[in-house]
Amino acid sequence: MKNIAVIGAGTMGNGIAHTFAQFGHKVNLIDISKESLEKGMGTISKNLDRMVAKEKISEADKEATLNNITTHIDIPSGVKDVDLVVEAATENEDLKLKIFRQLDENCSKDTILASNTSSISITQIASVVSNPERVIGMHFMNPVPVMKLVEIIRGYNTSDAITKTIMELSEELNKVPVEVNDYPGFVANRILMPMINEAIETLYNGVAGVYEIDTVMKLGMAHPMGPLQLADFIGLDVCHSILEVMYDGFKNPKYAPCPLLTNMVRAGKMGVKSGEGFYDYS
Ligand code: CAA
């Protein structure tokens, strides 16, 4: 499991590429534009600098990590001869299905195909691949270089052997893998998103303000971030789309996104990445 391709150089993709490269894997980082790749590499370099400054790694480790990453702007060249692909593209089902069809055409039949999806069905993604037993969810948490969990999602057809390989690989990255089954939101977001949605509902109902809600959860429950700050950090569009997947998947109104969240997404307030969400980042 030496050569890895990571599709998507955004927040999750660059963190995943960083982590594999830091642990000695050769990584092909793939995105559709040179600008996205440059931005992703810039973020990796900055996060490595942060680790050097904290004396977690040396300057030589930083250089070795960066040297392990090669960038590609198309899938066929990026997935040639890799043992594992980790897809971390935008959270959109049609896009993911399109990418997995391309992976099916361009990868060797032995290549393991993983998705970092936070809620889209692994079984659905695997349905467009000729041998779906090699498709698995490898759901990293943000910020990837720091967070210990990898949620490993078994699709309906995922084999025991592939699951074992991916669990062991995650441990080699100094992460803690947890195996879960493929139902909407898996485990992480099935529990996290209703909490975030309820925090937004609490704000929407005028029970308390942003600062008050986050402070209650930070100081009262020892969460590192309050739920509204965490929603901004994850991206309000991402939170909205995960809630929609669960609402649709379970047909249960308890997962319906709060109207305030829907309005903020429509208004382009996506959180940290757009400069404004529940907090102002400009
Ligand atoms: N890369 C590398 N290191 C990073 C980093 C990054 N992007 N971001 C932070 N760090 C490191 C810092 O260097 C620091 O290291 P030390 O402990 O060695 O000093 C450590 O992480 C803490 O960082 P800071 O001191 O700057 O800030 P902090 O104490 O406020 O912690 C945080 C930042 C780790 C993000 C913390 O606020 C936190 O844990 N927040 C919650 C994160 C969370 O819940 N993530 C899951 C989101 S859900 C998800 O990702 C999945 C989904 O499907 C939606």
From TrEMBL:
Pfam families linked to this entry: 3HCDH, 3HCDH_N
GO MF assignments: (3S)-3-hydroxyacyl-CoA dehydrogenase (NAD+) activity
Keywords: Oxidoreductase
UniProt superkingdom: Bacteria
Domain 3-hydroxyacyl-CoA dehydrogenase C-terminal: 185-281
Alphabetical list of PANTHER family matching this protein: 3-HYDROXYACYL-COA DEHYDROGENASE FAMILY PROTEIN, 3-HYDROXYBUTYRYL-COA DEHYDROGENASE
Protein name: 3-hydroxyacyl-CoA dehydrogenase family protein
